[in-house]
Design brief:
The complex is a heterodimer of chains A (210) and B (661). By secondary structure, chain A is an alpha+beta fold. Chain A has a single domain (2-200), classed as Cell Cycle, Spindle Assembly Checkpoint Protein, Chain A (2-Layer Sandwich). In chain A, 33% of the residues lie in helices and 29% in strands. In chain A, the strands form two sheets. A five-stranded antiparallel β-sheet of chain A has the order 5-3-4-8-7, covered by helices on one side. A two-stranded antiparallel sheet of chain A has the order 1-2. In chain A, a hairpin with a 7-residue loop joins strand 7 (180-184) and strand 8 (192-200). Chain B has 661 residues and is mainly alpha-helical. Chain B has ten helices and five strands, in the order ααααβαααββββααα. Chain B has a four-stranded antiparallel β-sheet. The longest helix of chain B has 287 residues, at 2-288. The chains are: A alpha+beta (210), B mainly alpha (661). At the A-B interface, helix 3, strand 3, strand 4, strand 5 and strand 6 of A face helix 4, strand 1 and helix 5 of B.
């Protein structure tokens, strides 16, 4: 009880914001994998987060991969080097990119030098994250079914002059030709502002601009 | 000529007389001719009548002949019709005969075809007969060979029979010796058993001795164990009791811990409440309202609430009055505005009127001036009344006056314009006195402003479209390669999935090739080689081995059954032969050949045919042997209708013949 009270008064630091955003990405990617049926639903288990029941994977290989990526993301978010995170869903047989879930990140670089934390309550951020995750679940209703077996990949757009750590490599942007885009909600921790939109095929652009 | 004329004249009279005579002669001639003619006529008439009569008679004859011919024609016609009828009948007959002929010919053809078929069947049958005869020949050959074999076998049988007898004797001796052997063996066994039992007893005795030696030790151990057992039972009871105590204590502990936690919370609450109490008590000091108990506080609160109510009422009244005042104020303001506007209008009208007044005054002045001028002119004219030619002077003066008037009019209009301009300037508040000079500048500036505004709107539109494109590209995932780069984890699930798929594909291709080879081999040879079999069945070699084993075992079973059946059948036939005295063979379907054990010749046999499919009723067929036993057949088959009696009678007969012979 005492610890929580102290945290609320502290507000949002850069490190805290990076943690929140990275955690959100981890749960968001898990939700996308479950909703789009990339992995079988029986490999997912329920956890409580942001006041919702979310599904996370139990597959150890996948967990390991996601943890590696998310840990790296946290470091880069602290240094404000990340511009975008993209979840690319492609068909295994034809290597064709079917869907792209794109998270744009606006990082306020002045927060690196600040010592006074920003004022935004934990609850407000959680509400915003909750609405984004609900929207991810809702978008699945109007997306077309993925008929073929698919696999996913995580692409991170960073600054050009950043050092590439081992185990990571450069790749192409994996565009979709003739795609249609849908822009969805965003949330902000006042330091990091991930905006979120999602291009895919075969449906019209909806006016969900915020 | 004269002479001739005369002659002529002379002769004329002569001629007339000659002519008259001539004519008379002619007349006579003519009359004669006439008479002749009449005679001839009569003759002709008579002849004609005769001819007519003859003609009539001929005609009658002809008529008669005609009638006769007609009758004949009729008769001939009748005959003709009759002949036609007969012809028709004959034709019909002919047709019928032809039809019959055709039928007959068809029948003939059918018969011929049948004949041909019969001939063919005859040929076929002849062929068959020839084949059968050949078969018979072959079979007779076989029979002869078999008879020879039989003779040989009979000789062998005799030899074997002798051997068998010798063997029987030997067997008997052997059996005797064997029985003796058996007795000795039994004795040996008994002795061995006794010996083994004695050994066992010796061993047992030794073990007993060893055990007896152990006995006191065992007693001691027993005592110790019993003591320990009793001790452990006591301990167990103590343990049970202790466990119950422990459980009770644990429960107490839990309760005390809960109580402690509650205590802690209660203490916290206590502190909070004390704090609150203190703060409440402090209130007394802070508010200075003589509060020591909560009752006082409640009283104060009630009083405050009452005051609040009163104040609210006052507030509401005050607000109502304020609203009414505001409404009145607004009305007054509106009235003020109206009055101001009216004032302005009045001022304008006044100014306009003043301007009009000034103009009119000026006009009046001008007009008075004109009038004075005109009056002066008129007075000058009146004063200078002379009969000279006034016209040019008058005209000049008229022109001068007119020019004066025009000048004055022009001056008037100019002055009026100036006045209007001054009025306009006085009405406007701006102090631009050089408007006529700067109008051109204003127009040019306005044009520039319009152009710039048009450019600005175009640039704004371009900006908007570019921003839209940029946004769309960023939505699609575009990025600036000079500032950003795209990274991903090397061991990402998509690449792993691709690798797995490749490996699966390779495996499937290899499997495919193996299976194709198997198929080729199977289609070509039909026999599976060992290595291919191993290759082809790499998925389930065990199943195939099991199946093969099953197949082999089934085949073995089949073979064994066949052998067993054969042996059984042969045994059964032999037994039947020995018991009944007849060997029963099946020659063709439903035909059974019986050969007696006592038959005199090899070929003596009886043929029976089964009339029903189940073999219930049998009929005897004619053979060479059956002809020799007529009496038996008559007696037993025809009269008594019993085949077993017949067969047994036959065996007895043959047996009697054999023994006698």
């Amino acid at each position: 009880m005492a610890r929580q009270a102290v945290r609320e008064q502290q507000g949002i630091t850069l490190r805290g914001s990076a943690e929140i955003v990275a955690e959100f990405f981890s749960y968001g990617i898990n939700s996308i994998l479950y909703q789009r049926g990339i992995y079988p639903p029986e490999t997912f288990t329920r956890v409580q987060k942001y006041g919702l029941t979310l599904l996370v994977t139990t597959d150890p290989e996948l967990k390991n991969y996601l943890n590696n990526v998310v840990e790296q993301m946290k470091e880069w978010l602290c240094k404000c080097l990340v511009q975008r995170l993209v979840v690319v869903i492609s068909s295994i047989e034809s290597n064709e990119v079917l869907e792209r879930w794109q998270f744009d990140i606006e990082c306020d670089k002045t927060a690196k030098d600040e010592t006074v934390p920003r004022e935004k309550s934990q609850k407000a951020i959680q509400d915003e994250i909750r609405s984004v995750i609900r929207q991810i679940t809702a978008t699945v209703t109007f997306l077309p079914l993925l008929e073929t077996a698919c696999a996913f990949d995580l692409l991170i757009y960073t600054d050009k002059d950043m050092a590439v750590p081992e185990k990571w490599e450069e790749s192409g942007p994996q565009f979709i030709a003739n795609s249609e885009e849908v822009r969805l909600r965003s949330f902000t921790t006042t330091i990091h502002k991930p905006e979120y939109y999602h291009p895919s095929r075969r449906f019209k652009v909806l006016p969900l601009l915020f | 000529m004269v002479c001739t004329v005369r002659f002529h004249i002379c002769t004329g009279q002569l001629e007339e007389q000659a002519g008259r005579i001539h004519s008379k002669s002619q007349l006579l001639q003519v009359e004669r001719e006439k008479m002749q003619m009449e005679l001839s006529h009569k003759r002709a008439r008579i002849e004609l009548e005769k001819a007519a009569n003859t003609n009539a008679r001929n005609y009658e004859r002809e008529a008669d002949r005609n009638q006769e011919l007609l009758t004949r024609i009729k008769q001939y016609q009748e005959r003709e019709t009759e002949a036609e009828n007969k012809l028709k009948e004959q034709m019909e007959m002919n047709k019928s005969y032809k039809k019959s002929m055709e039928t007959m010919s068809k029948k003939l053809q059918e018969k011929e075809s049948k004949l041909a078929e019969a001939n063919e069947t005859i040929t076929i049958l002849k062929g068959k007969i020839s084949e059968l005869q050949r078969n018979i020949m072959n079979q007779e050959m076989q029979m002869t060979s078999q008879d020879s074999q039989k003779e040989e076998l009979m000789e062998q049988l005799d030899v074997q029979h002798k051997k068998w007898q010798e063997a029987n004797q030997q067997i008997q001796t052997l059996q005797a010796s064997q029985s003796l052997l058996a007795e000795y063996e039994q004795k040996i066994k008994d002795l061995e058993q006794k010996f083994s039992q004695q050994e066992h007893d010796a061993v047992i005795v030794k073990n007993m001795k060893v055990e007896l030696a152990r006995y006191p030790k065992m007693e001691r151990e027993l005592r110790q164990l019993r003591e320990e057992n009793a001790y452990f039972r006591e301990m167990k009871e103590n343990n049970g009791l202790l466990k119950e105590e422990v459980e009770g204590l644990q429960r107490k502990l839990e309760r005390y811990e809960k109580v402690q936690a509650q205590l802690v919370t209660v203490e916290l609450e206590n502190e909070k409440l004390l704090g609150k109490l203190k703060s409440w008590e402090k209130l007394d000091q802070s508010t200075g309202l003589n509060i020591r108990t909560p009752d006082d506080l409640s009283r104060q609160i009630v009083a405050l609430q009452q005051r609040e109510l009163v104040l609210k009422e006052q507030n509401s009244t005050v607000t109502n009055s304020a609203r009414t005042l505001e409404k009145a104020r607004q009305q007054l303001q509106e009235e003020i505005l109206q009055i101001q506007s009216q004032l302005l209008e009045e001022k304008k009208k006044r100014e306009q009127h003043e301007a009009l007044v000034r103009r009119l005054q000026k006009r009046v002045l001008l007009l008075t001036k004109e009038r004075d001028g005109m009056r002066a002119i008129l007075e000058s004219y009146d004063s200078e009344l002379t009969p000279s030619e006034h016209s040019p002077q008058l005209n000049r003066r008229m022109r001068e006056a007119e020019e004066m008037v025009q000048k004055l009019h022009a001056h008037n209009t100019e002055l009026e314009l100036e006045v209007e301009m001054k009025v306009l300037k006085s009405q406007e508040c701006t102090a631009e006195q050089s408007t006529s000079i700067t109008k051109e500048e204003i127009n040019s500036l306005r044009l520039k402003i319009e152009e710039l505004e048009a450019e600005r709107s175009k640039l704004e539109e371009e900006n908007r479209s570019l921003e839209m494109k940029l946004e769309k590209l960023t939505l699609q995932g575009d990025y600036d390669p000079s500032k950003t780069k795209v990274l991903h984890f090397s061991m990402n699930p998509a690449s792993l999935a691709k690798q797995q798929r490749k490996e699966e594909q390779q495996q499937l291709q290899e499997e495919c090739e193996r299976l194709r080879e198997l198929v080729r081999v199977l289609e070509g040879g039909g026999s599976i080689h060992g290595n291919l079999e191993g290759v082809g069945s790499f998925q389930s070699p065990q199943e195939i081995a099991e199946l093969k084993k099953q197949v082999e075992s089934a085949e073995l079973k089949n073979q064994r059954l066949k052998e067993v059946f054969q042996t059984k059948i042969q045994e059964f036939r032999k037994v039947c032969y020995t018991l009944t005295g007849y060997q029963i063979d099946i020659t063709t379907e439903n035909q059974y050949r019986l050969t007696s054990i006592y038959a005199e010749h090899q070929g003596d046999c009886l043929l029976f045919k089964a009339s029903s499919s189940s073999g219930g009723k049998m009929q005897l067929l004619e053979t060479e042997f059956s002809r020799t036993i007529r009496e038996l057949i008559d007696l037993h088959l025809l009269r008594q209708d019993s085949i077993p009696a017949f067969l047994s009678a036959l065996t007895l007969d043959l047996f009697s013949r054999q023994t006698i012979a």
